[in-house]
Amino acid sequence: MLDVKRIRENPDWVRQGLNARGASTDAVDTLLRLDEERRRLLTEVETLKSQRNAASKQIGELKKKGEDTTAAQAAVRDVGEQIAALDVRVRASEEETQRGLLMIPNVPHASVPVGQDDAANPVIAQEGTPREFAFEPRTHIELGEWLGLFDFKRAAKMSGAGFALFTGAGARLQRGLIQYLLDVHTRDHGYTEVWPPALVNAGAMTGTGQLPKMAEDMYRLAADELYLIPTAEVPVTNFYREETIDRALPVLLTAYTPCFRREAGAAGKETRGLIRLHQFDKVELVKFTTPETSYAELETLRADAEDILKRLGLVYRVKALCTGDLSFAAAKCYDLELWAPGHKGWLEVSSCSNFEDFQARRAGIRFRDVEGRLRFVHTLNGSGVALPRLVVAILENGQQADGSVILPPPLVPYMGGVDRLVPRA
Asked: Which regions of the chain carry the CATH code 3.30.930.10?
């Protein structure tokens, strides 16, 4: 959520940011009208309260003199009724202003390239060169079926399209990857592991920006007013919701969770296999930082996610998202994409974002600076990393002509010493 004072004092800055996103500026104009009305009502209330205080004081003086105060008391009661009525209007105005603020996206950082969609996202780094095959590389679907790693037909019978059922070595690979990712981030990158709930309330979803704008993309349990999380970003960022952080910043947290997304089967998207799922596993990285250090912390966050891909020996590239491709809450974001030879393309496996104080304002997360002032923290998060497309890249890049798959060396201990996946006997 943006600071209403900043919008009031510099509306053109917000309008320019929304225009760069390709978003309407109507909400800004509406908000400014609401804010003006709210402040007018507050001024009127304060004026009436001042009048009431003066009249009450005058009544006290009249009583000391033994004079009749009936008319004066009636006038004070009338002013009190006006104040009560205005208080109701002030509360309604404040609530409407708050709802308006919740619908305005974050303003992109000045360093974000301007563009309309992913076609305008520049590649700013690449690690490795795609492997040349002496045979036509298979897709992860072909490899998985041949090796007995997953069963999409049975998953569909259980849950419908967009779900995966991992079996045998595929299930162990999932478990091993989760443990490996958490081990690296906690042991080598300095994150503290948490294991949060997979169901959260509307307040938590609102705090990170999923609600109210993206309500239709969420799985909602109406009877309990709870939502299945789309990412661990939601519960982990809400770790300090409505609190003042009483420890030195930055605070680094990591978590494994299942993730749930209704929009996984969106039209025009690749939906076969593991590319887009309604339920998938992910290890998330979250940072709470000072405003002065958040952009340096974004670079180390990105480096932590990249380190996983480097250790696994995978070819990847980094894109800087343009203004039109940023998420609703992000001020700046990098996407990490893995090369998948069977898919014949790049697959996003991590988004590393700085939200500045946008989420912290919504969630009420503050800290005290060195001068003792209460300020909003900056929040950042990134996938460290998402498993489905990581599995795709591991299978498709490690495949051999006979259909077996050589696993990256760091995963061998997590697979019980198995370094190559072969069909079950």
From this structure: 118-421
**Cβ-contact 164, 150 below 8 angstroms:** yes
How do strand 332-340 and strand 244-245 relate by DSSP bridges?
unpaired
What's 4-102's CATH class?
Answer: mainly alpha
**What pLDDT score was predicted for residue 270?**
60
pLDDT at residue 271, as a whole number: 64
What is the mean predicted confidence (pLDDT) over 357-368?
Answer: 98
Tokens linked to 29:
């104009």
Query: CB neighbours of 134 closer than 8 A, spacing ≥ 6?
Result: 401
> Which ranges in the chain are annotated with CATH 1.10.287.40?
4-102
Is-contact 301 287, C-beta < 8 A? Answer: yes
Q: Give the architecture-level CATH label for domain 118-421.
A: 2-Layer Sandwich (3.30)
Cα separation, 34 vs 99, in Å, equals: 11
Strands (DSSP E) found in 238-344: 244-245, 251-260, 279-289, 316-320, 332-340
Residue range 365-380, pLDDT digits in tens: 999 999 999 999 999 9
**Beta carbons within 10 angstroms of residue 84's beta carbon:** 10
Return d(Cα 36, Cα 41) in angstroms, integer. Answer: 9
Phi, psi of 106 (to 5 degrees): -70, 155
Short-list 418, 402, 408, 423, CA closest to 133: 402
Q: Which of 72-81, 106-115, 204-213 has the lowest mean pLDDT?
A: 72-81
Q: Give Cα 371 to chain centroid, integer Å.
A: 30
319 three-class SS: strand
Instruction: Give the pLDDT score at 255.
Output: 98
In whole numbers, what is the pLDDT of the chain averaged over residues?
95
Q: Which residues pair with 405 in a beta bridge?
A: 399, 421
- Using alpha carbons, select from 287, 322, 281 the residue that is nearest to residue 304: 287
pTM tops 0.90: yes
267: pLDDT strictly greater than 50:
no
Backbone angles phi, psi at 410, to 5 degrees: -60, -20
Chain center to CA of 123: 22
- Mean pLDDT score, 37-51: 94
Residue 77 neighbours by CB distance under 10 Å:
11
